[in-house]
Amino acid sequence: MSPYLLGVFETGVTYQFIHSLALLLCALFALNTPILNAQKAFHRAAICFIIGILFFSGSLYALALTGVKWFGPITPLGGVMFMVGWGFLAYAGYQMTDETNKDGVNQ
């Protein structure tokens, strides 16, 4: 494996690791919040992270291991799913703080 392809593989590993941790956080927060909108947003974020890992990291692994260039254009689709997942995660956090403020807990 060339140094370039090794770097491609390592990029896939890095993003998979980061988003696997994000998946764990989504699961922990979804299980511990009574707010239905936040639970749904955490669930949607987790789905986006899973799809992102499959498309982003998976295509980088396939590119690095096979050298087939047509796996490259699949990678940005995974990146978009990562961004959508982070958006859902931010929305879930907003839902949690909004509901908490309505109840007067943080005031």
TrEMBL record:
The keyword Transmembrane applies. The chain crosses the membrane at residues 12-33, 45-64, 70-92. GO terms for cellular component: plasma membrane. The keyword Repeat does not apply. It is a multi-pass membrane protein. Keywords: Membrane, Transmembrane, Transmembrane helix. It is found in: Membrane. Belongs to the UPF0382 family. This is DUF423 domain-containing protein.
